[in-house]
Amino acid sequence: MRMWASFFSLLNVALVLMNVIEHGSAGITSTFIRAEWAAADIPLDNKVFETPNGYNAPQQVHITQGDYEGKALIISWVTPDAPGSSKVQFGTSEKQYQFSAEGSYSNYSFSSYKSGYIHHCLVDGLQYDTKYYYKIGDDDSGREFRFHTPPESGPDVPYTFGIIGDLGQTYNSLSTLQHYMESEGQAVLFVGDLSYADRYDNEDIGARWDSWGRFVEPSTAYQPWLWSIGNHEIEYFPKLGELVPFKSFLQRYRTPFEASQSSNPLWYAVRRASAHIIVLSSYSPYVKYTPQYIWLKEELERVDREKTPWLIVLVHVPIYNSNEAHFMEGECMRSVFENWFVSHKVDMIFAGHVHAYERSYRISNIHYNVSTGGCHPIPDKSAPVYITVGDGGNQEGLAARFRDPQPDYSAFRESSYGHSTLQIKNRTHAFYNWNRNDDGKKVPTDSVVFLNQYWASNLQRRKLKRNICRGSLSSVAAF
Ligand SMILES: [Fe+2]
């Protein structure tokens, strides 16, 4: 298997080089078109939404990182009929649970909907890089799952992330989810817009949050999904008497925000393997002096590239996008944070929101001055690559109209559904793939080797650490 993996990795590199030779720096607008499956949600009686057997059996099971360093998880689930137990039993052998942790539950109402009992339990003190089994629910209807903790953070720790956005619950969403589950992804970076339940009325809003929780459980119960929020999580509905933004999301999904000294669950950071991941909220204040602004400034100082070389930012609204959909919506955040993204050499910024795929070159527009004018993104080796993966497949369909001509900053764009994987190999190299959903098949379509912005761009650092790169592919184009 390893031999084949190496072969495909080399093939990836060759494709990238061919791409560069063939196209120079011109951006590519993919001409791929395929008949899209109907963008309607899957009916609620479909088996993908099936409830588990047994009275009051836990459902909608999902896990996320529970601390800053990766030694804790938050395990969440819903019991439909009665509170039941909030306990998690866990251990390193199947059906032998040496440990347990006690969580808590709550419920909420939304318009005419009343939720089940939503449980959250922090499981901490875990060993790194270890397979655990866990059990939740009462004995006669208990359910068992497993997860694998990440390796201890270190500069050359390999790790594979999946990146999914704007998923929803259509047949296209199902295709994306299934394709991701076929990959070797170990954790998901989710870039906002989960269930699209807000497109329903009254109690159906809650019902579609429940169905989405069951829909994604085959992945979310077994590996952490790191959440960021999108506009479909806001759910500000004065006509329904619902005035508290993010109510359903905050009741159902947890983030480890306090561990990164954030004051709000909607923005936070974690270290995981060789990556430092910063999650931002497009829909919370972020201009100067706001809590999110102050927190991000301080969090960027806490990034230790000697320990976690890969600096990744997640945010829902793309900063750079050349689709007609949501064009320039990210401009306000760009004007506030882009300077920091460049000065801190962020590797990549993943966004959703636009229901298509797009990858930028390394560009910045930090010299814009409102007095003197002249506002053009220019090539900048210190800048992040901006990647839009809002193509999970929700009921709103594809954003099919790209702006013409393709702007200089856009490297590759295609209006199809899919997901991405980022395989971090060591402190200098990561293999990246965007995988199109192609009539039931997963097709790697945009493949890039990323060189780390901190380690690979500094010759001095690389010379000092020459040994760790031996055997790596050193002649690839720098993206
Ligand atoms: Fe969105």
TrEMBL record:
It is an enzyme of class 3 (hydrolase). Residues 58-149 form the Purple acid phosphatase N-terminal domain. Its EC number is 3.1.3.2. Residues 160-357 form the Calcineurin-like phosphoesterase domain. Keywords: Glycoprotein, Hydrolase, Iron, Metal-binding, Signal, Zinc. It catalyses: a phosphate monoester + H2O = an alcohol + phosphate. Residues 1-26 form the signal peptide. It comes from the Eukaryota. One of its GO terms (molecular function) is metal ion binding. InterPro entries: Calcineurin-like_PHP, Metallo-depent_PP-like, MPP_PAP, PAPs-like, PAPs_C, PAPs_N, Purple_acid_Pase-like_N. Residues 383-441 form the Purple acid phosphatase C-terminal domain. PANTHER family: ACID PHOSPHATASE RELATED, BIFUNCTIONAL PURPLE ACID PHOSPHATASE 26. Belongs to the metallophosphoesterase superfamily. Purple acid phosphatase family. This is Purple acid phosphatase. It comes from Stephania cephalantha.
